Automatic annotation (TrEMBL):
One of its GO terms (cellular component) is preribosome, large subunit precursor. It is found in: Cytoplasm; Nucleus, Nucleolus. It comes from Nyctereutes procyonoides (Raccoon dog). Component of the ribosome assembly machinery. Nuclear paralog of the ribosomal protein P0, it binds pre-60S subunits at an early stage of assembly in the nucleolus, and is replaced by P0 in cytoplasmic pre-60S subunits and mature 80S ribosomes. GO terms for molecular function: RNA binding. This is Ribosome assembly factor mrt4. Belongs to the universal ribosomal protein uL10 family. Residues 189-210 are annotated as: Disordered. The keyword rRNA processing does not apply.
Amino acid sequence: MPKSKRDKKVSLSKTAKKGLELKQNLIEDLRKCVDTYRYLCIFSVVNMRSSKLKDMRDAWKHSQMFFGKNKVTMVALGRSPADGHKDNLHQVSKKVRGEVSLLFTNRTKEEVNEWSTKYTEMDFARAQNKATFTVTLDPRAPGARGVVTLLSDPVVCKEGDVLTPEQMAEFKVTIKYMWDAQSGRFQQMGGDLSESALESAGESEGEDDS
């Protein structure tokens, strides 16, 4: 039976798909970083902004950061002790959930903690963010040619109010976990987490992939 010309598939794009190739390259890059750096940290970012992330990358050029592609990351690190790239890396893989990122570095635990604690930047909030504190405008003494325009203390926003994009937000980095390549130790660092502070290499996997 002759083929119908109607069944012919026509691609509207001249660019060939490279999804599998990109994923394989990412897996190779992640494993190379595991072999190169001593520490691997899982961190999260509150009020993420591309400009702030660029500044953060520039400040930590001596290290390597990866954002997104959680499932590919889990494959690269290993989902079980049997297929883990290194000892206890499957524990890291289990915590790659939601909006988290990876930091490979040779900086010490104390240096990473100090950086994440102090690194905060103010930026414009996005719509639907909530105010963390109340902001008011205080009337000021006018200069020689000043004109009084504030007759009271207007409230810019109240704590708990939903903000508009013109109001401010805090860009903040939180280090949640750290893995040591030399000892294989996987440790909780901070964040609003309920797991135990230290997970040993002998722990069994009790969490399925989502």
